[in-house]
Input
Amino acid sequence: MGEQPIFSTRAHVFQIDPNTKKNWLPTSKHAVTVSYFYDSTRNVYRIISLDGSKAIINSTITPNMNFTKTSHKFGQWADSRANTVYGLGFSSEAHLSKFAEKFAEFKEAARLAKEKSQEKMELTSSPSQESATDLQSPVTPENINGTDERVTPVAAFNTESRAELNAVPFPHSSTSITKHWEAELATLKGNNAKLTAALLESTANVKQWKQQLAAYQDEAERLHKRVTELECVSGQTTGIKTQKTELNQTIEELEAELKAKEEELEKLKEEVENANQLQTQKDSLTQKLQETESRNADLESQLSDLEQRLENSQLDGEAFRKSLRSLLELLDGKIFELTELRDSLAKLVESGSS
Output
């Protein structure tokens, strides 16, 4: 089955600055999918995130890891294998809490898996850890290869001894018996030396095989990570297509909004031009108003002068009328006197002629 995603969410991905060990460096321009993967064949949990075809998170969960919430929407954990610290920024506190719960759950599962693996390794490697002097269960290449056909030195000795005792007739003298057991003892010492050498050689082979196994495991881990990345890329093709469709829709919406803004900008330009024209007209009218006010002030000054002159003329006319009335009265008096004089003369003429 390989690795399968068991939980996914979306977040902004960061890594600690390797120089300052304080500042966060964004590894994604926008929120990306962050997934927990489980490898059933190796009982391994990993956190994987891809930005396009680039793996920006590839972290294997170990029992020593801790996920820390540093704010309501941000969390982080340290990966000693990658020699870095990862940070995730979520859109809500609920998403952060869910991710932290899954981290604790898979961390505990990784711890149990590690304990089971160690128990199996101890059971598998226990024969190779026995003393070289303990000849009851030596380490042989057959044991390392995993076969169940185990023959202990004691069993081999018993088999050989029985075969030799059956083949050699039982001696009837004590000298013959002593020589026979001395020969048996020499044979046993030779067999013991051979078995000890074989044990030491097997121990050296075990170390070599462990080194080769570790190298094979590292190579398998590297190849497995590469396969996982390729599987993630293949598995997220649909998601990438969906994101592409969403981005295209967003681009279309932005283009429509941009077009509307451009139309609004054209209208604003027209309004600005109209405002400039109105400002020019306003300046012209203001200048004309100032000229009109200046002329009005001149006319008011002239009117004031005319009123003053009119008032003076009226005063002069009143004085003239008074003088004229006085002259008329004087003239009337003179005329009356002349009339009386004429009448007196007439009377004198009439009285002289009579």
Q: What stands out?
A: The mean pLDDT is 79.
